[in-house]
Specification:
mainly alpha; 2 domains; 6 helices; about 50% helix; about 10% strand; globular
């Protein structure tokens, strides 16, 4: 399993969808995306540390969906398990663009999670 930064199946994202993604990449959007990543390295880390020190945990059910080919997220369930009381981790086919690459599988996972009334 290698690191995947795009779709495993290049045809999963149609030309129209690619054009829409590109059109959304305005200078303001790109700046906001970069600011979000910077925040995760600085202020988010401090907030996470403070929350840990205070013993905070996520108490509602959490669904963590990762793709089979996204190696950079292979340990995501280990990380999130420390933050949650009720974690359901699932792996679906594809790469970075799960909704485009595995829409049926993702829909099934989401519906099963949302229909669940008790602990995972």
């Amino acid at each position: 399993m290698g690191q995947v930064l795009g779709p495993v199946d290049q045809s999963a994202i149609s030309a129209d969808c690619r054009a829409a993604y590109r059109a959304a990449m305005t200078a303001e959007t790109i700046a906001a995306m970069c600011a979000d990543y910077r925040a995760s390295l600085y202020i988010d880390r401090q907030h996470d540390f403070d929350a840990r020190q205070a013993g905070h945990r996520i108490t509602v059910p959490v669904l963590l969906g990762i793709s089979e080919d996204e190696a950079q997220l292979a340990d995501a369930s280990n990380i999130w398990r420390d933050w949650t009381l009720n974690l359901r981790a699932v792996c679906v086919p594809g790469g970075h663009f799960i909704p485009e690459e595995a829409p049926e599988e993702l829909t099934d996972v989401l519906l099963r999670f949302l229909e669940c009334r008790g602990p995972a």
